[in-house]
Amino acid sequence: MGAGVTEPAPSTAVRTRAPGAEATPPRPRAHGPRARRDALTARAGIAMYILPALALVGILLLVPFGYTVYQSLTEYDGISPAEFVGFDNYVTLLGAERFHRSLINTVIWTVGTLLLPVLLGLLIAVLTNASGWPVWVRYAFVLPYAISGTATGVIWGFMLRSDGAVNQVLGAFGLDSLQQEWLLSWPMNTIVMILAETWRAVGISIILFLVGLQTVPRETVEAGMLDGASGFRLFRRIVFPQLRAVTVVVVGISIANSLRVFDVIWLLTQGGPGWLSETLAVTMYRQTFVLSEYGLGSAVAVVLAVIVVSVSWIYLRQQMPKRG
Amino acid sequence: MARYLRNGFLITFAILWLIPTYLLVVNAMTPSSSYDGSPDWFPGGFGFFDNLSKAWESADLGLGIYNSLLYATLSAGIAVFAAAFASFAVIVMPTRRRGLWFWLIYSGTLLPLQIFLAPLFKAFVDVNLYDTQLGMVLIYAALCVPFAFFVVRNYLTTVPDEITEAAQLDGAGWSRLFWRIHLPLVKSSLLAAFVFQFTWVWNDLLFGITLSTSPNIRPVMAALAELNGGYSSLGPPIVLAAALLVSLPTVVLFLTFQRFFASSLKPVG
Protein backbone atom coordinates (compact mmCIF):
# COMPACT_ATOMS: atom_id res chain seq x y z
CA MET A 1 0.00 0.00 0.00
CA GLY A 2 2.45 2.65 1.14
CA ALA A 3 5.75 0.87 0.47
CA GLY A 4 7.30 3.95 -1.04
CA VAL A 5 6.26 6.06 1.89
CA THR A 6 7.36 3.86 4.74
CA GLU A 7 10.95 3.77 3.60
CA PRO A 8 12.13 7.28 2.85
CA ALA A 9 14.12 7.55 6.04
CA PRO A 10 17.08 5.26 5.56
CA SER A 11 19.87 5.72 8.03
CA THR A 12 22.10 7.59 5.59
CA ALA A 13 19.59 10.36 5.17
CA VAL A 14 19.22 10.67 8.91
CA ARG A 15 22.95 10.86 9.42
CA THR A 16 23.61 13.49 6.80
CA ARG A 17 20.97 15.79 8.23
CA ALA A 18 21.58 14.97 11.83
CA PRO A 19 23.33 18.17 12.86
CA GLY A 20 20.45 20.36 11.78
CA ALA A 21 17.84 18.11 13.31
CA GLU A 22 19.68 17.83 16.58
CA ALA A 23 19.88 21.54 17.08
CA THR A 24 16.16 22.17 17.49
CA PRO A 25 13.92 19.62 19.16
CA PRO A 26 15.46 17.48 21.94
CA ARG A 27 17.00 20.09 24.17
CA PRO A 28 15.88 19.22 27.67
CA ARG A 29 17.47 22.18 29.41
CA ALA A 30 15.99 24.95 27.27
CA HIS A 31 14.37 27.49 29.53
CA GLY A 32 13.57 31.16 29.31
CA PRO A 33 11.64 33.29 26.83
CA ARG A 34 12.93 31.46 23.78
CA ALA A 35 11.67 28.06 24.92
CA ARG A 36 8.37 29.58 25.91
CA ARG A 37 8.03 31.17 22.52
CA ASP A 38 8.78 27.83 20.85
CA ALA A 39 6.14 26.14 22.93
CA LEU A 40 3.69 28.86 21.96
CA THR A 41 4.36 28.51 18.23
CA ALA A 42 4.05 24.74 18.56
CA ARG A 43 0.68 25.16 20.24
CA ALA A 44 -0.40 27.68 17.62
CA GLY A 45 0.59 25.12 14.96
CA ILE A 46 -1.57 22.47 16.56
CA ALA A 47 -4.45 24.91 16.86
CA MET A 48 -4.28 25.57 13.12
CA TYR A 49 -4.93 21.88 12.49
CA ILE A 50 -7.82 21.47 14.92
CA LEU A 51 -9.46 24.79 14.21
CA PRO A 52 -11.33 24.16 10.93
CA ALA A 53 -13.16 21.10 12.26
CA LEU A 54 -13.72 22.62 15.68
CA ALA A 55 -15.02 25.90 14.26
CA LEU A 56 -17.50 24.18 11.94
CA VAL A 57 -18.81 21.86 14.65
CA GLY A 58 -18.64 24.43 17.41
CA ILE A 59 -20.33 27.35 15.68
CA LEU A 60 -22.86 25.47 13.56
CA LEU A 61 -23.72 22.54 15.85
CA LEU A 62 -22.67 22.98 19.47
CA VAL A 63 -23.73 26.60 19.89
CA PRO A 64 -27.18 25.90 18.35
CA PHE A 65 -27.43 22.87 20.64
CA GLY A 66 -26.79 25.04 23.70
CA TYR A 67 -29.23 27.64 22.43
CA THR A 68 -31.96 25.02 21.94
CA VAL A 69 -31.52 23.89 25.53
CA TYR A 70 -31.89 27.52 26.66
CA GLN A 71 -34.81 28.16 24.34
CA SER A 72 -36.68 25.19 25.77
CA LEU A 73 -36.93 27.25 28.96
CA THR A 74 -38.55 30.21 27.20
CA GLU A 75 -41.76 31.06 25.45
CA TYR A 76 -41.14 32.42 22.00
CA ASP A 77 -43.34 32.70 18.93
CA GLY A 78 -40.70 33.93 16.52
CA ILE A 79 -41.90 37.55 16.67
CA SER A 80 -42.43 39.06 20.13
CA PRO A 81 -39.49 38.89 22.56
CA ALA A 82 -38.74 35.55 24.22
CA GLU A 83 -39.88 35.18 27.80
CA PHE A 84 -38.15 32.99 30.37
CA VAL A 85 -40.64 30.49 31.77
CA GLY A 86 -38.47 27.89 33.51
CA PHE A 87 -39.70 24.34 33.06
CA ASP A 88 -43.20 25.32 31.95
CA ASN A 89 -42.73 23.90 28.46
CA TYR A 90 -41.80 20.51 29.88
CA VAL A 91 -44.80 20.58 32.19
CA THR A 92 -47.03 21.45 29.24
CA LEU A 93 -45.58 18.53 27.29
CA LEU A 94 -46.18 16.10 30.16
CA GLY A 95 -49.86 16.96 30.10
CA ALA A 96 -50.32 17.02 26.32
CA GLU A 97 -52.03 14.03 24.76
CA ARG A 98 -50.28 14.81 21.53
CA PHE A 99 -46.87 14.48 23.18
CA HIS A 100 -47.87 11.16 24.78
CA ARG A 101 -48.88 9.79 21.40
CA SER A 102 -45.64 11.05 19.92
CA LEU A 103 -43.67 9.26 22.65
CA ILE A 104 -45.62 6.04 22.13
CA ASN A 105 -45.01 6.22 18.38
CA THR A 106 -41.32 6.82 18.96
CA VAL A 107 -41.14 3.71 21.15
CA ILE A 108 -43.04 1.65 18.56
CA TRP A 109 -40.70 2.90 15.84
CA THR A 110 -37.62 2.13 17.88
CA VAL A 111 -38.71 -1.39 18.79
CA GLY A 112 -39.99 -2.08 15.28
CA THR A 113 -37.01 -0.79 13.34
CA LEU A 114 -34.74 -2.46 15.84
CA LEU A 115 -36.28 -5.92 15.67
CA LEU A 116 -37.26 -6.16 12.01
CA PRO A 117 -34.14 -4.98 10.16
CA VAL A 118 -31.76 -6.61 12.62
CA LEU A 119 -33.46 -10.03 12.81
CA LEU A 120 -34.37 -10.13 9.14
CA GLY A 121 -30.89 -8.91 8.22
CA LEU A 122 -29.25 -11.62 10.30
CA LEU A 123 -31.54 -14.30 8.85
CA ILE A 124 -30.97 -13.25 5.25
CA ALA A 125 -27.22 -12.83 5.73
CA VAL A 126 -26.91 -16.32 7.22
CA LEU A 127 -29.10 -17.92 4.56
CA THR A 128 -27.41 -16.25 1.59
CA ASN A 129 -23.99 -16.86 3.07
CA ALA A 130 -24.53 -20.61 3.28
CA SER A 131 -24.85 -21.74 -0.31
CA GLY A 132 -24.17 -20.46 -3.79
CA TRP A 133 -27.08 -18.06 -4.21
CA PRO A 134 -27.29 -15.99 -7.34
CA VAL A 135 -26.16 -12.41 -6.77
CA TRP A 136 -29.55 -10.86 -7.58
CA VAL A 137 -31.06 -12.40 -4.46
CA ARG A 138 -28.65 -10.49 -2.27
CA TYR A 139 -28.99 -7.29 -4.28
CA ALA A 140 -32.77 -7.47 -4.03
CA PHE A 141 -32.39 -6.86 -0.29
CA VAL A 142 -29.40 -4.55 -0.28
CA LEU A 143 -30.22 -2.12 -3.07
CA PRO A 144 -33.03 -0.18 -1.33
CA TYR A 145 -30.50 0.97 1.25
CA ALA A 146 -29.01 3.26 -1.38
CA ILE A 147 -32.35 4.99 -1.89
CA SER A 148 -33.12 8.13 0.13
CA GLY A 149 -35.83 8.27 2.75
CA THR A 150 -37.65 10.79 0.58
CA ALA A 151 -37.71 8.52 -2.47
CA THR A 152 -38.71 5.63 -0.20
CA GLY A 153 -41.64 7.77 0.90
CA VAL A 154 -42.65 8.39 -2.72
CA ILE A 155 -42.42 4.70 -3.64
CA TRP A 156 -44.35 3.49 -0.62
CA GLY A 157 -46.94 6.19 -1.06
CA PHE A 158 -47.54 4.66 -4.47
CA MET A 159 -47.94 1.23 -2.82
CA LEU A 160 -50.12 2.29 0.11
CA ARG A 161 -52.51 4.98 -1.15
CA SER A 162 -56.14 3.95 -1.40
CA ASP A 163 -55.70 3.49 -5.17
CA GLY A 164 -52.21 2.05 -4.68
CA ALA A 165 -50.59 -1.26 -5.53
CA VAL A 166 -51.32 -3.04 -2.25
CA ASN A 167 -55.08 -2.53 -2.40
CA GLN A 168 -54.99 -3.39 -6.09
CA VAL A 169 -53.33 -6.75 -5.39
CA LEU A 170 -55.72 -7.51 -2.54
CA GLY A 171 -58.64 -6.78 -4.89
CA ALA A 172 -57.18 -8.96 -7.62
CA PHE A 173 -57.01 -11.92 -5.22
CA GLY A 174 -60.56 -11.36 -4.06
CA LEU A 175 -59.48 -10.13 -0.65
CA ASP A 176 -61.51 -6.94 -0.86
CA SER A 177 -62.31 -7.15 2.83
CA LEU A 178 -58.64 -6.54 3.59
CA GLN A 179 -58.45 -3.41 1.47
CA GLN A 180 -58.13 -0.30 3.59
CA GLU A 181 -56.76 3.21 3.93
CA TRP A 182 -53.37 2.09 5.13
CA LEU A 183 -52.07 5.54 5.96
CA LEU A 184 -55.18 7.07 7.47
CA SER A 185 -55.71 5.12 10.67
CA TRP A 186 -53.53 4.56 13.70
CA PRO A 187 -51.76 2.27 14.53
CA MET A 188 -51.89 0.77 11.02
CA ASN A 189 -50.12 3.78 9.49
CA THR A 190 -47.23 3.51 11.92
CA ILE A 191 -46.92 -0.22 11.30
CA VAL A 192 -46.83 0.10 7.50
CA MET A 193 -44.35 2.97 7.70
CA ILE A 194 -42.09 0.81 9.85
CA LEU A 195 -42.33 -1.87 7.16
CA ALA A 196 -41.39 0.72 4.52
CA GLU A 197 -38.38 1.78 6.58
CA THR A 198 -37.46 -1.88 7.10
CA TRP A 199 -37.58 -2.37 3.33
CA ARG A 200 -34.97 0.36 3.03
CA ALA A 201 -32.84 -0.27 6.11
CA VAL A 202 -32.40 -4.04 6.08
CA GLY A 203 -29.59 -3.72 3.50
CA ILE A 204 -27.05 -2.27 5.90
CA SER A 205 -27.64 -5.02 8.48
CA ILE A 206 -27.21 -7.67 5.79
CA ILE A 207 -23.94 -6.16 4.59
CA LEU A 208 -22.53 -5.86 8.10
CA PHE A 209 -23.61 -9.36 9.11
CA LEU A 210 -22.10 -10.80 5.92
CA VAL A 211 -18.82 -9.10 6.76
CA GLY A 212 -19.05 -10.53 10.27
CA LEU A 213 -19.81 -14.04 8.97
CA GLN A 214 -16.68 -13.96 6.87
CA THR A 215 -14.61 -13.50 10.00
CA VAL A 216 -15.99 -16.65 11.63
CA PRO A 217 -13.12 -19.19 11.38
CA ARG A 218 -13.95 -22.19 9.22
CA GLU A 219 -12.20 -24.49 11.71
CA THR A 220 -14.54 -23.42 14.50
CA VAL A 221 -17.57 -24.30 12.41
CA GLU A 222 -16.06 -27.62 11.34
CA ALA A 223 -15.17 -28.51 14.91
CA GLY A 224 -18.73 -27.78 15.91
CA MET A 225 -20.03 -30.02 13.13
CA LEU A 226 -17.71 -32.84 14.22
CA ASP A 227 -19.22 -32.55 17.67
CA GLY A 228 -22.57 -33.20 16.10
CA ALA A 229 -24.02 -29.70 15.99
CA SER A 230 -25.98 -28.73 12.91
CA GLY A 231 -28.63 -26.38 11.62
CA PHE A 232 -30.00 -23.97 14.17
CA ARG A 233 -27.96 -25.41 17.03
CA LEU A 234 -24.74 -24.92 15.10
CA PHE A 235 -25.73 -21.35 14.40
CA ARG A 236 -26.78 -20.50 17.93
CA ARG A 237 -23.90 -22.14 19.76
CA ILE A 238 -21.01 -21.71 17.35
CA VAL A 239 -21.64 -18.99 14.77
CA PHE A 240 -23.71 -16.41 16.61
CA PRO A 241 -21.28 -15.87 19.52
CA GLN A 242 -18.67 -14.92 16.91
CA LEU A 243 -20.97 -12.24 15.52
CA ARG A 244 -21.17 -10.36 18.78
CA ALA A 245 -19.04 -7.38 17.73
CA VAL A 246 -20.97 -6.90 14.50
CA THR A 247 -24.30 -7.26 16.28
CA VAL A 248 -23.33 -4.48 18.66
CA VAL A 249 -22.64 -2.19 15.71
CA VAL A 250 -25.80 -3.14 13.79
CA VAL A 251 -28.06 -2.64 16.80
CA GLY A 252 -26.30 0.63 17.67
CA ILE A 253 -26.84 1.98 14.16
CA SER A 254 -30.48 0.83 14.18
CA ILE A 255 -31.25 2.52 17.50
CA ALA A 256 -29.73 5.80 16.39
CA ASN A 257 -31.48 5.73 13.01
CA SER A 258 -34.89 4.73 14.27
CA LEU A 259 -35.02 7.62 16.73
CA ARG A 260 -34.25 10.07 13.95
CA VAL A 261 -36.61 8.86 11.22
CA PHE A 262 -38.17 11.90 9.62
CA ASP A 263 -38.26 11.71 5.82
CA VAL A 264 -40.43 8.62 5.46
CA ILE A 265 -43.07 9.91 7.90
CA TRP A 266 -43.00 13.42 6.46
CA LEU A 267 -43.62 12.11 2.95
CA LEU A 268 -46.21 9.48 3.82
CA THR A 269 -48.43 11.07 6.47
CA GLN A 270 -46.79 14.33 7.59
CA GLY A 271 -47.45 12.92 11.04
CA GLY A 272 -51.17 12.75 10.37
CA PRO A 273 -54.03 12.27 10.24
CA GLY A 274 -53.96 15.18 12.68
CA TRP A 275 -50.92 14.29 14.73
CA LEU A 276 -51.64 10.59 15.26
CA SER A 277 -48.54 9.19 13.57
CA GLU A 278 -46.03 11.78 14.75
CA THR A 279 -42.78 10.73 16.35
CA LEU A 280 -40.68 13.11 18.43
CA ALA A 281 -38.59 14.02 15.39
CA VAL A 282 -41.72 15.08 13.47
CA THR A 283 -43.40 16.73 16.47
CA MET A 284 -40.37 18.94 16.97
CA TYR A 285 -40.40 20.04 13.35
CA ARG A 286 -44.12 20.79 13.27
CA GLN A 287 -44.20 22.51 16.65
CA THR A 288 -41.37 24.80 15.64
CA PHE A 289 -41.73 25.50 11.94
CA VAL A 290 -45.44 25.01 11.32
CA LEU A 291 -46.90 26.21 14.63
CA SER A 292 -44.10 28.70 15.48
CA GLU A 293 -43.96 27.57 19.10
CA TYR A 294 -40.21 27.70 19.42
CA GLY A 295 -40.03 27.05 23.15
CA LEU A 296 -42.21 23.93 23.03
CA GLY A 297 -40.46 22.70 19.91
CA SER A 298 -37.09 23.10 21.60
CA ALA A 299 -38.33 21.21 24.65
CA VAL A 300 -39.36 18.32 22.37
CA ALA A 301 -35.90 18.41 20.75
CA VAL A 302 -34.24 18.30 24.17
CA VAL A 303 -36.37 15.33 25.26
CA LEU A 304 -35.43 13.55 22.02
CA ALA A 305 -31.74 14.32 22.56
CA VAL A 306 -31.85 13.03 26.13
CA ILE A 307 -33.47 9.80 24.94
CA VAL A 308 -31.03 9.30 22.05
CA VAL A 309 -27.92 9.99 24.10
CA SER A 310 -28.95 8.00 27.16
CA VAL A 311 -30.16 5.00 25.18
CA SER A 312 -26.95 4.91 23.14
CA TRP A 313 -24.87 5.37 26.25
CA ILE A 314 -26.63 2.65 28.25
CA TYR A 315 -26.46 0.32 25.29
CA LEU A 316 -22.79 0.90 24.53
CA ARG A 317 -21.81 0.71 28.19
CA GLN A 318 -23.45 -2.64 28.47
CA GLN A 319 -22.05 -4.05 25.29
CA MET A 320 -18.51 -2.75 25.23
CA PRO A 321 -15.92 -5.05 26.76
CA LYS A 322 -14.82 -3.53 30.04
CA ARG A 323 -11.28 -2.32 30.18
CA GLY A 324 -8.87 -2.93 33.04
CA MET B 1 -37.44 -30.65 3.50
CA ALA B 2 -35.77 -27.98 5.63
CA ARG B 3 -33.75 -27.04 2.61
CA TYR B 4 -36.84 -26.47 0.43
CA LEU B 5 -38.40 -24.45 3.19
CA ARG B 6 -35.32 -22.29 3.47
CA ASN B 7 -35.00 -21.71 -0.26
CA GLY B 8 -38.69 -21.01 -0.61
CA PHE B 9 -38.52 -18.48 2.19
CA LEU B 10 -35.56 -16.71 0.67
CA ILE B 11 -36.98 -16.57 -2.87
CA THR B 12 -40.36 -15.34 -1.64
CA PHE B 13 -38.78 -12.56 0.39
CA ALA B 14 -36.41 -11.56 -2.41
CA ILE B 15 -39.36 -11.19 -4.79
CA LEU B 16 -41.38 -9.25 -2.22
CA TRP B 17 -38.40 -6.95 -1.74
CA LEU B 18 -38.05 -6.38 -5.48
CA ILE B 19 -41.71 -5.51 -6.08
CA PRO B 20 -41.56 -1.85 -4.94
CA THR B 21 -38.46 -1.21 -7.07
CA TYR B 22 -40.03 -3.04 -10.02
CA LEU B 23 -43.24 -1.02 -9.75
CA LEU B 24 -41.21 2.16 -9.45
CA VAL B 25 -39.38 1.47 -12.71
CA VAL B 26 -42.43 0.23 -14.65
CA ASN B 27 -44.69 3.10 -13.61
CA ALA B 28 -42.00 5.75 -14.04
CA MET B 29 -41.88 4.58 -17.68
CA THR B 30 -45.63 4.73 -18.19
CA PRO B 31 -46.56 7.86 -20.17
CA SER B 32 -48.43 10.03 -17.69
CA SER B 33 -51.27 10.60 -20.20
CA SER B 34 -52.00 6.88 -20.40
CA TYR B 35 -51.94 6.22 -16.65
CA ASP B 36 -55.40 4.91 -15.83
CA GLY B 37 -55.52 5.50 -12.10
CA SER B 38 -54.23 2.15 -10.89
CA PRO B 39 -50.63 0.89 -10.88
CA ASP B 40 -49.29 -0.84 -13.99
CA TRP B 41 -47.68 -4.23 -13.46
CA PHE B 42 -46.27 -4.56 -16.96
CA PRO B 43 -44.34 -2.09 -19.10
CA GLY B 44 -46.49 -0.29 -21.64
CA GLY B 45 -44.98 2.49 -23.69
CA PHE B 46 -41.92 4.54 -22.88
CA GLY B 47 -42.68 7.93 -21.37
CA PHE B 48 -39.77 8.20 -18.93
CA PHE B 49 -38.18 11.27 -20.48
CA ASP B 50 -41.51 13.01 -21.04
CA ASN B 51 -42.36 12.40 -17.39
CA LEU B 52 -39.00 13.76 -16.34
CA SER B 53 -39.35 16.91 -18.41
CA LYS B 54 -42.71 17.56 -16.73
CA ALA B 55 -41.11 17.06 -13.32
CA TRP B 56 -38.32 19.37 -14.48
CA GLU B 57 -40.87 22.08 -15.28
CA SER B 58 -43.13 21.85 -12.27
CA ALA B 59 -40.50 21.56 -9.51
CA ASP B 60 -37.28 22.78 -11.12
CA LEU B 61 -35.80 19.35 -10.63
CA GLY B 62 -32.74 20.26 -12.69
CA LEU B 63 -31.83 23.11 -10.37
CA GLY B 64 -32.30 20.83 -7.39
CA ILE B 65 -29.96 18.25 -8.88
CA TYR B 66 -27.37 20.90 -9.65
CA ASN B 67 -27.59 22.30 -6.12
CA SER B 68 -27.37 18.92 -4.43
CA LEU B 69 -24.38 18.00 -6.55
CA LEU B 70 -22.71 21.24 -5.52
CA TYR B 71 -23.57 20.88 -1.81
CA ALA B 72 -22.68 17.21 -1.60
CA THR B 73 -19.33 17.59 -3.36
CA LEU B 74 -18.19 20.77 -1.63
CA SER B 75 -19.44 19.97 1.86
CA ALA B 76 -18.18 16.40 1.87
CA GLY B 77 -14.83 17.62 0.52
CA ILE B 78 -14.48 20.40 3.09
CA ALA B 79 -15.56 18.09 5.89
CA VAL B 80 -13.12 15.34 4.94
CA PHE B 81 -10.18 17.75 4.86
CA ALA B 82 -11.16 19.46 8.10
CA ALA B 83 -11.55 16.00 9.65
CA ALA B 84 -8.15 14.90 8.35
CA PHE B 85 -6.46 17.99 9.81
CA ALA B 86 -8.14 17.48 13.17
CA SER B 87 -7.36 13.75 13.22
CA PHE B 88 -3.72 14.54 12.49
CA ALA B 89 -3.64 16.97 15.41
CA VAL B 90 -5.29 14.52 17.79
CA ILE B 91 -3.33 11.42 16.79
CA VAL B 92 0.06 12.47 15.43
CA MET B 93 0.84 15.87 16.96
CA PRO B 94 1.74 16.16 20.65
CA THR B 95 -1.62 17.73 21.44
CA ARG B 96 -2.80 18.15 25.01
CA ARG B 97 -6.30 17.15 26.09
CA ARG B 98 -6.82 14.88 23.10
CA GLY B 99 -9.89 13.33 24.69
CA LEU B 100 -11.56 16.72 25.07
CA TRP B 101 -11.00 17.65 21.42
CA PHE B 102 -12.18 14.25 20.28
CA TRP B 103 -15.44 14.45 22.20
CA LEU B 104 -16.08 18.07 21.26
CA ILE B 105 -15.86 17.28 17.56
CA TYR B 106 -17.45 13.83 17.74
CA SER B 107 -20.40 14.88 19.91
CA GLY B 108 -22.08 16.27 16.77
CA THR B 109 -23.11 12.77 15.63
CA LEU B 110 -24.52 11.68 18.97
CA LEU B 111 -27.20 14.35 19.08
CA PRO B 112 -30.37 14.12 17.01
CA LEU B 113 -30.32 16.60 14.13
CA GLN B 114 -33.55 18.24 15.30
CA ILE B 115 -31.74 19.84 18.19
CA PHE B 116 -29.80 22.14 15.87
CA LEU B 117 -32.66 23.23 13.65
CA ALA B 118 -34.48 26.14 15.27
CA PRO B 119 -31.45 28.23 16.34
CA LEU B 120 -29.80 27.58 12.98
CA PHE B 121 -32.87 28.79 11.16
CA LYS B 122 -33.00 31.98 13.22
CA ALA B 123 -29.28 32.63 13.04
CA PHE B 124 -29.23 32.00 9.28
CA VAL B 125 -32.01 34.54 8.83
CA ASP B 126 -30.16 37.08 10.99
CA VAL B 127 -26.85 36.86 9.13
CA ASN B 128 -28.40 36.52 5.67
CA LEU B 129 -27.33 32.92 5.18
CA TYR B 130 -30.91 31.65 5.00
CA ASP B 131 -31.77 30.39 1.54
CA THR B 132 -28.24 30.88 0.17
CA GLN B 133 -25.88 28.35 -1.39
CA LEU B 134 -23.08 29.39 0.98
CA GLY B 135 -25.29 28.72 3.99
CA MET B 136 -26.22 25.26 2.73
CA VAL B 137 -22.60 24.31 2.02
CA LEU B 138 -21.55 25.50 5.49
CA ILE B 139 -24.21 23.62 7.43
CA TYR B 140 -23.77 20.41 5.46
CA ALA B 141 -20.00 20.62 5.92
CA ALA B 142 -20.43 21.04 9.68
CA LEU B 143 -22.86 18.12 9.83
CA CYS B 144 -20.40 15.92 7.93
CA VAL B 145 -17.32 16.69 10.05
CA PRO B 146 -18.00 14.48 13.11
CA PHE B 147 -18.46 11.18 11.32
CA ALA B 148 -15.67 11.87 8.80
CA PHE B 149 -13.46 12.67 11.79
CA PHE B 150 -14.41 9.36 13.40
CA VAL B 151 -13.55 7.35 10.28
CA VAL B 152 -10.27 9.12 9.44
CA ARG B 153 -9.11 9.19 13.06
CA ASN B 154 -9.66 5.45 13.47
CA TYR B 155 -7.65 4.83 10.36
CA LEU B 156 -4.86 7.18 11.34
CA THR B 157 -4.27 5.28 14.59
CA THR B 158 -3.08 2.34 12.49
CA VAL B 159 -0.13 4.33 11.10
CA PRO B 160 2.91 3.29 13.16
CA ASP B 161 4.66 6.00 15.23
CA GLU B 162 8.01 4.98 13.74
CA ILE B 163 7.00 6.50 10.42
CA THR B 164 6.39 9.86 12.05
CA GLU B 165 9.61 9.70 14.04
CA ALA B 166 11.71 8.68 11.06
CA ALA B 167 10.34 11.51 8.95
CA GLN B 168 10.90 14.00 11.77
CA LEU B 169 14.52 12.93 12.11
CA ASP B 170 14.66 13.50 8.40
CA GLY B 171 13.77 17.11 9.08
CA ALA B 172 10.17 17.08 7.97
CA GLY B 173 7.89 19.67 9.59
CA TRP B 174 4.23 19.13 10.46
CA SER B 175 2.84 20.30 7.16
CA ARG B 176 5.23 18.13 5.18
CA LEU B 177 4.38 15.15 7.40
CA PHE B 178 0.69 15.78 6.88
CA TRP B 179 0.60 16.30 3.13
CA ARG B 180 3.38 13.95 2.05
CA ILE B 181 3.22 11.11 4.53
CA HIS B 182 0.03 10.73 6.53
CA LEU B 183 -2.52 11.93 4.00
CA PRO B 184 -1.36 9.45 1.32
CA LEU B 185 -1.33 6.67 3.91
CA VAL B 186 -4.97 7.20 4.90
CA LYS B 187 -6.23 7.88 1.37
CA SER B 188 -8.74 5.05 1.40
CA SER B 189 -10.36 6.26 4.61
CA LEU B 190 -10.65 9.74 3.13
CA LEU B 191 -12.43 8.29 0.11
CA ALA B 192 -14.72 6.18 2.29
CA ALA B 193 -15.64 9.20 4.41
CA PHE B 194 -16.21 11.31 1.30
CA VAL B 195 -18.54 8.76 -0.31
CA PHE B 196 -20.45 8.32 2.94
CA GLN B 197 -20.95 12.03 3.44
CA PHE B 198 -21.71 12.74 -0.21
CA THR B 199 -24.51 10.18 -0.01
CA TRP B 200 -25.76 11.64 3.25
CA VAL B 201 -25.93 15.20 1.91
CA TRP B 202 -27.54 14.07 -1.33
CA ASN B 203 -30.24 12.21 0.60
CA ASP B 204 -30.96 14.88 3.21
CA LEU B 205 -34.43 16.38 3.35
CA LEU B 206 -34.64 17.93 6.83
CA PHE B 207 -32.08 20.71 6.44
CA GLY B 208 -33.07 21.29 2.84
CA ILE B 209 -36.66 22.18 3.73
CA THR B 210 -35.68 24.10 6.86
CA LEU B 211 -32.85 26.33 5.67
CA SER B 212 -33.81 26.94 2.05
CA THR B 213 -36.98 27.64 0.16
CA SER B 214 -36.44 29.02 -3.33
CA PRO B 215 -36.11 26.60 -6.27
CA ASN B 216 -32.65 27.82 -7.22
CA ILE B 217 -31.24 27.16 -3.74
CA ARG B 218 -33.05 24.14 -2.35
CA PRO B 219 -31.52 20.66 -2.70
CA VAL B 220 -33.03 17.91 -4.80
CA MET B 221 -34.86 16.00 -2.03
CA ALA B 222 -36.78 19.17 -1.14
CA ALA B 223 -37.82 19.44 -4.79
CA LEU B 224 -38.91 15.80 -4.77
CA ALA B 225 -40.92 16.34 -1.60
CA GLU B 226 -42.70 19.25 -3.27
CA LEU B 227 -43.44 17.14 -6.34
CA ASN B 228 -44.89 14.47 -4.05
CA GLY B 229 -47.19 17.13 -2.61
CA GLY B 230 -48.67 17.54 -6.09
CA TYR B 231 -48.98 13.78 -6.48
CA SER B 232 -52.64 13.65 -7.43
CA SER B 233 -52.65 16.61 -9.81
CA LEU B 234 -49.47 15.62 -11.63
CA GLY B 235 -50.10 11.89 -11.66
CA PRO B 236 -47.92 9.14 -10.21
CA PRO B 237 -45.68 8.49 -13.28
CA ILE B 238 -44.16 11.96 -13.09
CA VAL B 239 -43.40 11.81 -9.37
CA LEU B 240 -42.05 8.26 -9.68
CA ALA B 241 -39.84 9.22 -12.62
CA ALA B 242 -38.34 11.99 -10.50
CA ALA B 243 -37.84 9.60 -7.55
CA LEU B 244 -36.11 7.13 -9.85
CA LEU B 245 -33.80 9.77 -11.32
CA VAL B 246 -32.69 11.23 -7.98
CA SER B 247 -32.02 7.73 -6.63
CA LEU B 248 -29.67 6.76 -9.46
CA PRO B 249 -26.52 8.63 -8.28
CA THR B 250 -26.52 7.11 -4.80
CA VAL B 251 -27.40 3.65 -6.11
CA VAL B 252 -24.44 3.79 -8.52
CA LEU B 253 -22.13 5.06 -5.75
CA PHE B 254 -23.36 2.38 -3.40
CA LEU B 255 -22.84 -0.45 -5.86
CA THR B 256 -19.36 0.83 -6.71
CA PHE B 257 -18.25 1.18 -3.11
CA GLN B 258 -20.25 -1.56 -1.43
CA ARG B 259 -17.30 -3.55 -0.10
CA PHE B 260 -15.61 -0.39 0.94
CA PHE B 261 -18.59 0.74 3.01
CA ALA B 262 -18.68 -2.51 4.87
CA SER B 263 -14.99 -2.64 5.68
CA SER B 264 -14.83 0.95 6.90
CA LEU B 265 -17.75 0.34 9.24
CA LYS B 266 -16.20 -2.80 10.63
CA PRO B 267 -15.68 -2.56 14.37
CA VAL B 268 -12.06 -1.98 15.19
CA GLY B 269 -10.50 -4.27 17.72
TrEMBL record, chain A:
The chain crosses the membrane at residues 46-67, 107-127, 139-159, 191-213, 243-268, 294-316. Pfam families: BPD_transp_1. One of its GO terms (cellular component) is plasma membrane. Residues 1-35 are annotated as: Disordered. It comes from the Bacteria. It is a multi-pass membrane protein. Keywords: Cell membrane, Membrane, Transmembrane, Transmembrane helix, Transport. It is found in: Cell membrane. GO terms for biological process: transmembrane transport. Its main location: membrane. Residues 103-315 form the ABC transmembrane type-1 domain. PANTHER family: BLL4140 PROTEIN, DIACETYLCHITOBIOSE UPTAKE SYSTEM PERMEASE PROTEIN DASB. Belongs to the binding-protein-dependent transport system permease family. This is Carbohydrate ABC transporter membrane protein 1 (CUT1 family).
Automatic annotation (TrEMBL), chain B:
It is a multi-pass membrane protein. Keywords: Cell membrane, Membrane, Sugar transport, Transmembrane, Transmembrane helix, Transport. SUPFAM superfamilies: MetI-like. It is found in: Cell membrane. It comes from the Bacteria. The chain crosses the membrane at residues 7-25, 69-93, 100-121, 133-156, 177-202, 238-257. Residues 65-257 form the ABC transmembrane type-1 domain. InterPro entries: MetI-like (IPR000515), MetI-like_sf (IPR035906). Pfam families: BPD_transp_1. GO terms for cellular component: plasma membrane. GO terms for biological process: transmembrane transport. Belongs to the binding-protein-dependent transport system permease family. This is Multiple sugar transport system permease protein.
